[in-house]
């Protein structure tokens, strides 16, 4: 299936930022969207807006750290719309800070959401894609993994683990069934700073987002571009950053 209209797309981290913008754009362009995140009320509000605009949408409260929740998200897509064409594994947290702060709980959270959450998505969706003979994994990684900067080492490590995972999955999928795409955004104006504990670091990141961050819709358009290619065309990596970002 080519294009966006008619595809069934599950999106994790759909309650704000990039996930929310992606849900709106894909629904506008005729995809059926299945929205997952922990904040169910935010998902329901968004779902209501998409439905009122004529879109096809269901919501499913999902914690990606729990395999059963991600299985339920994928099952919801199949139950409601008969198939799953794309899984956008976008949920992520950025508990950034210097390694020497030894925020081992924050490290674990990032590993659980940013890496294990994506693995849970693969475990849930790969059998569906194989059975259908087609499917597309799209993940949101980060330029933090391309240009390593102090204070973001562990966050970048989780993102680069996902990048590696996508490349390995790609190489194991040359029978033409599965497409993989890693999207690496630079600064985007979202709520990602909320998880940063250090107030000075949080303020600095917030300032960068507000001063020159991309609108989340820009990343949504990149996701749509990867999705709308014919099935024999795989967009493996997209880097998208503000023109002024160093
Ligand atoms: P937001 O904080 O606005 O969105 C993050 C989303 O992830 C929310 O919907 C949140 O929903 C969800 N989420 C967090 N933890 C979980 C969980 N355990 N289970 C399910 N959902 C979860 O930030 P962004 O839109 O910026 O983030 C989206 C992705 O983009 C992330 O992977 C982030 O790392 C990446 N990214 C962002 C950049 C930026 O500058 N903003 C730059 C590069 C990459 P809820 O809390 O309701 O569960």
Quick rundown:
This protein has 246 residues and is an alpha/beta fold. It has helices at residues 17-28, 40-52, 67-81, 104-132, 153-171, 199-212, 216-228, and strands at residues 8-12, 32-37, 56-61, 86-89, 135-140, 178-185, 237-240.
Topology:
Elements lengths: L7 E5 L4 H12 L3 E6 L2 H13 L3 E6 L5 H15 L4 E4 L14 H29 L2 E6 L12 H19 L6 E8 L13 H14 L3 H13 L8 E4 L6
Helix pairs in contact: 1-7, 3-4, 4-5
This protein binds NADPH dihydro-nicotinamide-adenine-dinucleotide phosphate.
Describe this structure in words.
- 47% of the residues lie in helices and 16% in strands.
- α5 (153-171) links the parallel β5 and β6.
- The chain is of the alpha/beta class and 246 residues long.
- A seven-stranded parallel sheet has the order 3-2-1-4-5-6-7, with helices on both faces.
- The model has no long low-confidence stretch (mean pLDDT 97).
- The termini are far apart.
- The protein has helices spanning 17-28, 40-52, 67-81, 104-132, 153-171, 199-212, 216-228; strands at 8-12, 32-37, 56-61, 86-89, 135-140, 178-185, 237-240.
- The radius of gyration is 17 Å and the shape is globular.
- The structure holds NADPH dihydro-nicotinamide-adenine-dinucleotide phosphate.
- NADPH dihydro-nicotinamide-adenine-dinucleotide phosphate is lined by residues 12-19, 37-39, 42, 62-65, 90-94, 113, 140, 142, 185, 187-188, 190-192, 216.
- GO terms for molecular function: oxidoreductase activity, acting on the CH-OH group of donors, NAD or NADP as acceptor.
């Amino acid at each position: 299936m080519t294009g966006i209209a008619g595809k069934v797309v599950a999106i994790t981290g759909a309650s704000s930022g990039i996930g929310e913008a992606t849900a709106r754009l894909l629904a506008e362009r005729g995809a059926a969207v299945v929205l997952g995140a922990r904040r169910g009320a935010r998902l329901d509000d968004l779902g209501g807006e998409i439905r009122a605009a004529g879109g096809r949408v269901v919501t499913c409260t999902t914690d990606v750290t729990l395999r059963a929740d991600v299985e339920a998200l994928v099952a919801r897509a199949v139950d409601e719309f008969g198939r799953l064409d794309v899984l956008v594994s976008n949920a992520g947290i950025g508990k950034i800070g210097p390694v020497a702060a030894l925020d081992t709980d924050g490290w674990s959270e990032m590993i659980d959401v940013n890496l294990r959450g994506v693995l849970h998505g693969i475990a849930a969706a790969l059998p569906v894609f194989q059975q259908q003979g087609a499917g597309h994994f799209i993940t949101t990684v980060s330029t933090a993994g391309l240009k390593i900067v102090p204070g973001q080492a562990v966050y970048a490590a989780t993102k680069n683990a996902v990048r590696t995972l996508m490349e390995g999955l790609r190489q194991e999928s040359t029978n033409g069934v599965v497409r993989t795409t890693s999207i690496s955004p630079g600064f985007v104006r979202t709520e990602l700073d909320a998880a940063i504990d250090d107030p000075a670091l949080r303020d600095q990141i917030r300032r960068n987002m507000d001063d020159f961050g991309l609108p989340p819709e820009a990343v949504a358009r990149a996701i749509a571009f990867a999705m709308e290619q014919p099935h024999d065309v795989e967009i493996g990596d997209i880097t998208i950053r503000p023109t002024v970002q160093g």
